[in-house]
Fold this protein.
Amino acid sequence: MPIQRRSRGTSSEKEEPSRSSAGRGRHRRRIIILFFSLAATLAIISGRLFSLQVRQHPKLVEAANRQYRRLVPLVSRRGTIYDRAGRELAVSLRVSSIFAQPRDVEDPDRAASALSSALQLSAQKVRERLRSEKPFVWIKRSVSPEQADAIAQLGLKGIASVPEGRRFYPKQEQGAHVLGFVGTDDRGLEGLELQYDTHLAGKPKWVVRQQDALGRPIFREEAGEPQGSDLYLTIDEVIQYVTERELEAAVTRSGASGGSAIVMDPLTGEILALANYPTFNPNAYAEASGFARRNRAVVDYYEPGSAFKVIVGAGALEEGLVRPEDRFNGEGGAIEVGGITIRDHERFGTITFSEVLAQSSNVGAIKVGMRLGKSLYYDYISGFGFGNLTGIDLPGETPGMIRRPKDWSALSLASLSIGQELSVSPLQMLVAVSAVANGGTLVRPYVVRSIRAAEGTVVRDMSPVQLRRVISEGTARTLTNILKGVVTEGTGKAAAVEGFEVAGKTGTSQKLDQATGRYSRHKVVASFVGFVPAEEPRLAIVVVIDEPKLLRWGGSIAAPTFREIARESLQHLRISPSARGRLRLAEGIRGAASRLN
Amino acid sequence: MVRGQGATAVTTIGRHRASAFLKPRVDQIRRFDLLHSILLGSLVLVGVLFYVWQHIQVVRLGYQIEQLQGERTALTRQQKELRFKVARLKSLRRVEEIARRQLGLTSPGPGQVILVE
């Protein structure tokens, strides 16, 4: 048994190692196979990873970016235009415009019917557009948000909307000629909209947007919409309104064909108001005539007539050729020059130089002009800026027309002395008289005070520009006193503002008749240009009425318009009457009170 | 043979002894290893989950930001429209017309305005 057990035991012991070694061998083989399998798998994975991560990296990154990153254009919103007190004069709002891609429209008749009722358009016109061969057609630009929603709800294939900026002018006609207007493509076409178009329009931006598989945005690199710079003007909305109202009243009252008026700070050149009548509504500029849309105060010119006697007087005083008390023979109201007789509006005897201006004597002015002579007079004319641009920041300014002395006829010096044979713009006339008001310095007029970026940072600040000295302070003071006489006892009495000293000059010039080539007896330009308070001028104002039919004199139509504009503007600017003016005003009130009693 | 048997016997006994002696220790090590493995695995899992959660949160917040930006744009637009309406209503022509026609007011005459300095 033991042997058996031993022998059994021995054989099993012999078999066990051989079996276990065979098992180990199989085990090892399996491990080796597994190892190589894993190694091969790893090698394949590594190879693939190398291919994806290294070799194809740029291509795959680009493909991925294409899928979840999208470059989106952001259209810049046009900047706002404010008056000097920050009141909105021109604003841009986002509106939708409806367009069609006719090839994608499934049923043009049904779509045309739905669109025409939603957008209040003619079904026939919409149908024609939808049947167009063009790949893209506008159905309606600048629709209301409600209409845009209605179109979206229709869910018509091939019909979509795109957001666009649209310009609105909340004050309608107010300041229309200064502001100008923009076209349907949101580009400036006139006025400041054109002059400062690059600042106002801004630049479109491209931003990267991350989106999901459905195209829904997840992230955007930059929030908000880009916006053009804002303009802050020198224009005062209240003075602008008063100027427009009074100008309209004057044109209507006199039956004139039109008129212009400008209010300026004579010390700085800041334009406080600029108006033309007839005017237009920039929200619907296409409905207005070209005449109504033209900024005639800046781009048109006229013969200034007697108002130009200020320039001949300034030159003669500055050169010491005349003194206020110098006497001139009125020649019984007529003088012959170059074979032509020039008459006064009334017969004057001997009058002083001050009276020549106060009473607007043509004979006296011609005699003063002759003392000055061609060359010197021309120097003063061009020195005061006539024949050149004033440099105002508005488009289309005219330099006016003035011939050189070598081209003058025997009559020219006399004609120029009374404001004929040259053309000036109302703005040029105002700038020249402002030089008298401010002590003899020609200033550059301007309309934009400041350009500010959307976030409020200042892009550019405009400051007053003094161009040159044209007359001395002494001459300016003397001339101011003479011009005060025009209002107190001369042709411009209607320009007197209660409580204030006013200096100015009237002008009534005949217009050239295009048919006959002669001065018309019926067509005149009536004007008044002056400043107030005379001693410390704050406002320089020019009023030009074109072809008045009822009140044909500068003193009877332009001067009272000056007075009304000046009176309300001074009140608005809280400028107190002078001490002398206050006294006169108090006397006036006492007189009125005693009359009532 | 004897030596061989003896040696085999000694080895077997030694093994049994060693096994008996080492088993609890090996079990302890195994438990310890298992615990470590579970902990490590959990940590990795938590890390992965955190990573995924973070990404989901970022995307979710992205949607929220985009939605809020859209709301802000709409409100800014509405504000601009309202400011435009206010500016239109404040038009001096309109105000004067209401003052004159509806309220019967007139412009103050000379001397009726006294500026207080």
